[in-house]
Amino acid sequence: MSAENLDTPIFYEQLEDLEYDFEDVEMELLRQQAKLTKDLYAKREKLVADIPNFWPLVFEQSPPDIDEYIQPSDAALLLGSLKSLSVDRFELPGGDPRSVVIKFEFFENDHFENTTLEKKFWYRRAKDGWAGLVSEPVDIQWKADKDLTGGMLGLARKVWEEEKAGKTDETEAKKKLKEQMDSTGLGGVSFFAWFGFRGRDVSAEEDREAFKIEQERRQARKEGKEVEDEEDDDDDDDDDDEYELEIFPTADDLAVAISEDLWPGAIKYFTQAQEQDAMSDMDFESDEDMDEADGEKKKDQKK
Amino acid sequence: MSAENLDTPIFYEQLEDLEYDFEDVEMELLRQQAKLTKDLYAKREKLVADIPNFWPLVFEQSPPDIDEYIQPSDAALLLGSLKSLSVDRFELPGGDPRSVVIKFEFFENDHFENTTLEKKFWYRRAKDGWAGLVSEPVDIQWKADKDLTGGMLGLARKVWEEEKAGKTDETEAKKKLKEQMDSTGLGGVSFFAWFGFRGRDVSAEEDREAFKIEQERRQARKEGKEVEDEEDDDDDDDDDDEYELEIFPTADDLAVAISEDLWPGAIKYFTQAQEQDAMSDMDFESDEDMDEADGEKKKDQKK
């Protein structure tokens, strides 16, 4: 299929502007959603606090894009010690509704001293046009020989602190982290390495400037003025560097999956867990019953 | 993990009520979304009408849960003849925002006489607690020997008409349809068989009654009154019967995927198609460029 008429960039500009308008609506809807569900989430928190193992059972039923990151040893820890989970769009009402903080609370456990682990993701724009979630590595106080990340999380945090202090050259911690990452298969990384994610290095200041530039460009185009093209991503190489020491590169996707699926769908996942429990206790009278139960499950998952 | 404290049904009732409250918010947000995006979709329709092959390119880039249903012969027809697609939540503003009508417009083509194919899905509740999308089979005026469903769609429509006329026994059309379905592998069914979907036989009247019963039950529970349990789905067998002659059993999922992903994301999918086109025209200078392009694509797909 040819695209001969599409060399005129005017189409692209108009489509791009329209996408920005749709994005504005999405942001408005996220704000509305946060407002309309606030009391319901508070009610849910109170209600599920009395249900033993509510959150562990939710995690046990988590969808594939979350479940794939939970190793057997992570699952044992979560099932045994997770007390509660909460998600908050902390930049609301004034700021970006896509920024989220995800908070895990734990009972006393064999693996770490922390009772709360909190990871904050800021939605930021870079001057080259990129936009997405960035974060800071959170350290976990592992008990002796109980570090599920095999030391990687601590090193990631250390490297970050070194860089903040201005040490940009190769340090001992960087070298060790690279070695660790090379020797750990990608499929074997603990869920808890997620707390080490940083993403692109975009400061709040750069975000503000990039946002302003974007708004001005949109405004100018709306007024029919000629607008210079965004600088093209010629410095993409920087990205590669930044991802080089990322111990959980898809942590931002996982954060979105938790905030937009696991957290809002918790009652649904918990109910599924209960049904499964009931099923495995049941004496199966006939194969037909099994088929029915499967059919029902499939339908239940539909919205 | 045990669930010993959970035999008290009170938790389930409260969780269920809370889920209804969350559902109300979702409905309200869908209504808001329809209102806030109405003008933007109208603007998009006007804009893309001038872009050759916009909708075919969108379908070419459709996500796996849509793409898996598009057979090579379907793709050829869509790529060559699809003029436009539109989705409308036709029961708004007063009715259920989950009811959708999906309309395909076609240029003159070798396969059928129709220039418009429209499929309506009503969101309905049954008295046994089930809720979901139901529809009516749409017939397509195939040209001689050009029926991509091999006659199944016409038969599905005929069976539906017979049943509406009160013929509940085994007819010639039913027998032929069953034979056809048995001889067609599930993986080989045409995308156009989707127009034959019926779903559960829930009338508008049953929906109204079921909705009323549900509202009354919720209200009573809110007032702290004892409420009788919903009848349990003892007549699940009916479901099996109804799905027996369904030539595209997951048509409702596909309708949701089109309405909530392909339709709102059309500009994104079109842009992807253009980028891919540009990529395949490009002389690759080095492997590094490829890696970068991949990386960018991955990031672009993120929200």
UniProtKB/TrEMBL annotation, chains A, B:
Task: Name the domain of life this protein comes from.
Answer: Eukaryota
Q: Which GO terms describe its cellular component?
A: nucleus
Query: Residue spans with biased composition (Acidic residues)?
Result: 226-245, 278-294
Kindly indicate where the leader peptide sits in this chain. none
Disordered: annotated span = 210-248, 278-303
Q: Which GO terms describe its biological process?
A: nucleosome assembly
Fetch the InterPro entries from UniProt: NAP-like_sf (IPR037231), NAP_family (IPR002164)
Ranges annotated as biased composition (Basic and acidic residues): 210-225
Similarity comment text for this entry: Belongs to the nucleosome assembly protein (NAP) family.
This chain belongs to the protein called NAP family protein
